[in-house]
Amino acid sequence: MHGHEMREGDTNASSLMIEHILNGPCYEGCRMDEGAILVAGVGGIGCTWAERAHTKCSELADLLLIDADEASFAGASAAHCLHLDAGGDGRGTAALPALAAHRLRDGIDSVAPLLDQAELVVIMTGLGGGMGSGASAELASLAYENDCLVIAIAGLPFAEQPLRCKIAEAAIQALEENSHVCIRVSMERLAWQARHRDDDWRAGSGWIGELVEGLVTTLAKVGKINLDLMDLRTVINRPGNATLIVGTGTTDRPDKVVSEARKSPLSDLRVDGAKGCMIQVEGGPDMTLAHLNEVTEAFVSSLDPDCQVIMGARASDEMMGRIRLVAVVSGL
User: Fold this and answer.
1) Angstrom distance (rounded) from CA 196 to CA 258
2) Where are the domains of the chain?
3) Considering 95, 141, 198, 317, which has the largest number of Cβ atoms within 10 A of its Cβ?
4) How many CB atoms lie within 10 A of CB 10?
């Protein structure tokens, strides 16, 4: 079963469907071909984010790391690595995005088969330096040309870094032009969230890993109401901006799931009034109809009254005691 589309007046039908989900058995399995999802990290921060995120969904996605510094590949035994060090001297591309893009074009043949297989490419990078600012947009462009669905997660520099901010401002435009969705992540907000979580912002504060894991399992794992790339394309092809958010909580406090989602470290983009939404709620066998209704209604209530909502749901033993909301919102 594909995602269920809800509009105003569908509450009763949706509740019956949710009840069917929760009363049925939990299923496990992959619905997408091997290699259909590619998680890619570009530059030092991007490689760190991608490697950490991939550990949460390693059986469902391939991993590609791209950098001029071999240290970015250390310990990444499951990764396909593209070392863009043309001179062999270990030097990076510093504040030279054009050089990074040129090196990627020259070396892309070695990883081209990954793009040929992929249907969805999730690119993670930090903007403001040379490698992330130049090579990420080039990789997005190549994936886009291969008819892949391209989602980029781009970290924007701290305000106290004027040179990096200037480079990032130019780079984000090229990345957005070559991506179906480009998620702007504020490093300041990410650092604040990392302190709150007692985590490392350089590793994504745990939020980026949750976002990628939630998206990948939504599309790849079997659920009672399955969402797929067609549903994702339907939502993100609406006019206006689009973004992804994720929130996690417990069955004891389902209200916190939506509040956590709204604390996502996005850069100046609110989801209120969105015209399109793909929402997936995942929980364990202990998730009840009341939990699911509370989470979905709390989130959808802030969207446009005529918002097109495509809903999916999945129950798995590994989510026992927890609830996770993953939402793609568009028309912002």
Assistant:
1) 17
2) 4-29+230-330, 37-213
3) 141
4) 14
245 DSSP β-pair partners: 327
Residues 6 or more apart from 141 whose CB is under 8 A from it?
A: 178
Question: Using CB atoms within 10 A of its CB, is residue 304 exposed (0-12), middle (13-18) or buried (19+)?
Answer: middle
Select the more confidently predicted residue: 18 or 301: 301
At 12, is the secondary structure helix, strand, or coil? helix
Record: fold of 37-213: Rossmann fold (3.40.50)
Mean pLDDT on 128-142? 90
CB atoms within 10 A of CB 96: 17
Nearest-5° Cα angle at 288, 296 to 272: 10
Is 4-29+230-330 assigned to CATH 3.30.1330.20? yes
Segment holding 152, helix H or strand E? strand 149-156
Helix axes 11-23, 289-300, angle to 10 degrees: 140
**Parallel/antiparallel/unpaired status of strands 242-250 and 322-330:** antiparallel
- 24 pLDDT above the threshold of 60: no
DSSP states along 258-324: HHHHTT--BSS---TT-SEEEEEEEE-TT--HHHHHHHHHHHHTTS-TT-EEEEEEEE-GGGTTEEE
